Amino acid sequence: MSKLPRLRAIAIALLASLALVRPAVAVDRTDIYWNPDEGGWGVNFVQSADFMFATFFIYGPNSLSIQPFWVTANMTQDANGVWSGPLYQTTGTFFGSPWNPAQQTTSQVGTATFVPTNSYSGTLTYNVGGTNVTKQIQRQTLTTIPLGGKYSGAVLSTFSNCNDPAQNGSLTYFANVNVSQTVGGPIDFEIESDLPLCRIGGTYILNGSLYRIPSAAYACYNSTSTVAMSQVKSTAQGIEGTWSGPVGSAYPGCTEQAYFSALFVY
């Protein structure tokens, strides 16, 4: 049985003055979220590292039921990936009048917590005073986002649980990524590198800004299997995403966790 291919990474010297270190790969939660059964209600998340700002569009009680009620939350992420923080109510000047700073107020009225279930959904709980709310929310899809094109970038794969321990480890390589997309059908990826051609694809689901292929056909490293692709996203400069699953019978027991990022070429 041949071992999984290995490529040695080129070491790059960092400036001694560099103080900030990028955190490990993680999901970017920035998007519009809603409950599909409750159109008219929603929340926007904007993430900055381990801080997330949330704006709620909700409505007031009783006679104010047709009036918007403006609240925001400042949430931070803990070691378990749970986001939580204070919830604030704000008021301000009528939008048709010049802004008057004296009319602006901010007061904490409760707290908010978001517990992710996966990359595209989770449980949101919050309270405004003595009123407690729990909702199952997910990213809201607006339009189909084009992904098709040719890209150039890199792939990082980590192999684990191999029957042959020598096949465990990480592999980093440069690659060209060719993507073809059919609306309502499949997305197919061809990854060209110094390794054997890798093909991954299948029928996609779009959740907000993220694509996923729960059961993607996988043919890589001269082996075949089915993997899950997720967090596939069009970026301002290109494309990124991840896949995970068994490598295939050619490498017994091996599972792969891969990340890719590439720049749009044409």
Provide the helix percentage: under 10%
How many beta strands in the DSSP annotation? 17
The helix-and-strand class reads: mainly beta
Percent of sequence in beta strands: over 45%
Topology diagram in text:
Elements: E1 31-34, E2 42-48, E3 51-59, E4 68-77, E5 83-91, E6 105-116, E7 121-128, E8 131-139, E9 149-160, E10 169-181, E11 186-192, E12 198-203, E13 205-207, E14 210-220, E15 223-234, E16 238-246, E17 255-264
Antiparallel strand pairs: 1-2, 1-8, 2-3, 3-4, 4-5, 5-6, 6-7, 7-8, 9-10, 9-17, 10-11, 11-12, 12-14, 13-14, 14-15, 15-16, 16-17
Characteristic terms for this protein:
266 residues; mainly beta; Porin; eight-stranded antiparallel barrel
Structure summarized in a few sentences:
By secondary structure, this protein is an all-beta fold.
Structure description:
- The chain is an all-beta fold and 266 residues long.
- It folds into 2 domains: 31-139; 149-264, Porin.
- Helices cover 0% and strands 57% of the residues.
- The protein has no helices and 17 strands.
- The chain has strands spanning 31-34, 42-48, 51-59, 68-77, 83-91, 105-116, 121-128, 131-139, 149-160, 169-181, 186-192, 198-203, 205-207, 210-220, 223-234, 238-246, 255-264.
- The protein has an 8-stranded antiparallel β-barrel. An 8-stranded antiparallel β-barrel has the order 9-10-11-12-14-15-16-17.
- A hairpin with a 4-residue loop joins strand 10 and strand 11 (186-192).
- The protein starts with 30 loop residues before the first strand and ends with a strand.
- The relative contact order is 0.15.
- Residues 5-18 have low confidence and may be disordered.
